[in-house]
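Continuing the series of single-chain predictions for the mutant panel. This is the parent chain; the variants come on the following pages.
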Amino acid sequence: MSTETRSYEFQAEVQQVLRLVIHSLYSNKNIFLRELVSNASDACDKLRFEALAEPALYGDQPELRIDLSWDKDARTLTISDSGIGMSKQELIDNLGTIARSGTRQFLEALEDGKKADAQLIGQFGVGFYAAFIVADKVSVSSRRAGSGEAFTWESAGDGRFTLEPVDKPERGTTIVLHLKEGEDEFLDGWTLRSLVRTYSDHIGFPIRMPVEKDGKPGDEWETVNQAAALWTRPKSEISDDEYQAFYKHISHDFGDALSWTHNRVEGNQNYISLLYIPERAPFDFGMEREARKGLKLYIKRVFIMDAAEQMLPNYLRFVRGVIDSDDLPLNVSREILQNSRQVEKLKSALTRRVLDQLDRLAREEPEKFATFWNEFGAVLKEGLAEDSANTARIAKLLRFASTHAGERDTLVSLDDYIGRMKPGQETINYLTADGWNAARHSPQLEALKTHGVEVLLLHERIDEWMIGYLTEYEGKKLRNIAKGELGAAELGEGAPAAADQQEQVKAAEGLLEKLKTALGDRVSEVRVSQRLTDSPACLVLAEHDMALHMQRLLKAAGHEIPAGTPTLEINPKHGLLQRFDAETDDTRRQDIALLLFEQAQLAEGAQLDDPAAFVRRMNALLLG
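Parent structure:
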């Protein structure tokens, strides 16, 4: 075996992460031990899984365990495991680089002044580097199961690390922390036991420490954690702190979970589920729709895989947790999971469990639900398209801004809306727009506001797509007030009588004809509006046309959109319409007609085809 020691440069991002971790997490330095023990537990899990197909990987070490020891004289703290171990290349890949999408964006965000707190760095998943909070040098010796080679990785956290071959008789990984001055508390057996019981009691493998004699670690070892998988224990025996500690272990989140549900099911299927709803989304959550995380899958307490995406639909990808089944075969593969009827039943049951938990939060802990919605509401909306079997349950959880609330952050449910519907009103009215201000200031709302009819304001990009999958709720049709004509179904008892409408149309016949002639094929029709009370005009689509802002988004993305021509609705009582009707100069009348049309476009958030011409016409009107 070569005895050459080679030196390597850290990947640039690792150097930045090291600097951030060392300087930002010092006030929460205890977490380094939790992270290292958690990594050791993962290594044991991975060996147990690989040994299903290759039992020889155990060799003459059948026991999976984690050992924690210390040496006051040498000022070292050592964490050893008998797990899968790492090869030379894995040491380089796992400890010298960060193969994670969004790394650079994350670091740039922190350097721009955002708080580099434990929660963010925990979500980022760089727990190993927390060792450098308390150590000025870290050595990692590892031998992969099934290999005779072992290597030691060593760094002082200064931008470089070395690798050299070593003799290591047993598989697994040994991490030696050379503690900094002032970190003597981590050379105390009582303190270390306390930290293990606080942060790692739930680990399903024995965590051993030496029995102390005369204040020093002796030759005997004792197990200091419960060494039983937390999810297999009765709920009555598990404290909230233990649940939260386990959440941090499986999610690598430094913050607490918002809520969780723990269930044992026996009958046609036998399984245990422990599902967590996080309080905060990971920094890169929006980037990871394809890079799924999700649930850890165990079968009869044997770890099978991380990110078992088949266990929950994609719109619940924010859920973290564990599923432990007694019914699936131990040699299960992703392909088998994909095509298994058992898994489909399990997925359906777990989906209901999560939706039940969210419904409970919404009813009993609305503040927590509001926190959830702010973080994951847009993701939940995807469920309307993905999960038709649960449309009603998802719809019940949706929250929207509305004209009733008046504030962007004050959200209402569909049940809230129905409870406030006006006498005679038959539809749940909504408006989609490409921003909050565009929605709340839309001229389409004027008549409904005048009559006190509430309108839901859907101003997020996903909303137009999402609402296409929700046509009714509790027997009430959902109605886009920017499409078609408004009447009693939308306005309730405040709708004008049919005779009054006919009279208005008859009185404006000449005006309508002049406008249609002036605008030509820019509009499909010009008609008197039941929507407007203050504005001169607005654009209205046919019932099944795509919203104008969605058309713009798709065109900007390079999609071909079928040409559609809107209707122009006018308010004949408005001074600008009266001026148009009275104008005798053909050029000026044409300019006013185009201004009416362009104003309606701008109110919809559109870009004008010829802004300079609009300015010229506006100036001419102001000066005239």
